[in-house]
Design goal:
The protein is mainly alpha-helical. The protein has helices at 2-9, 13-30, 32-44, 49-62, 64-84.
Length: 86
């Protein structure tokens, strides 16, 4: 753990790689509800406007709040990682 902190706080390529990796991991986790929506939409394969609207409404109501919360948390965590380190 101390080695990662020293890499992050040092200037150079290693710090860039660690911060970029942390940023990618943060946003992949923050967008999990969106990936679930896309996977469900692909598996259900809605036909027509009303089926599309029903799937969008269900996901907006059920996991929309979670997506918004994770986006805010991810942005804050990303800001901390890029400005201060882990």
């Amino acid at each position: 753990m101390l080695k990662i902190k020293s890499l992050i706080n040092s200037s150079g390529f290693a710090s860039f790689v660690v911060k970029t990796g942390a940023t990618i991991i943060i946003w992949v986790i923050a967008l999990v509800p969106f990936w679930l929506y896309l996977l469900t939409r692909m598996l259900v394969n809605p036909i027509g406007f009303w089926q599309e609207l029903a799937i969008l409404a269900i996901f907006a109501i059920v996991i929309g709040w979670l997506q918004a919360l994770l986006i805010i948390f991810g942005a804050a965590l990303n800001f901390v990682v890029l400005t201060e380190g882990l």
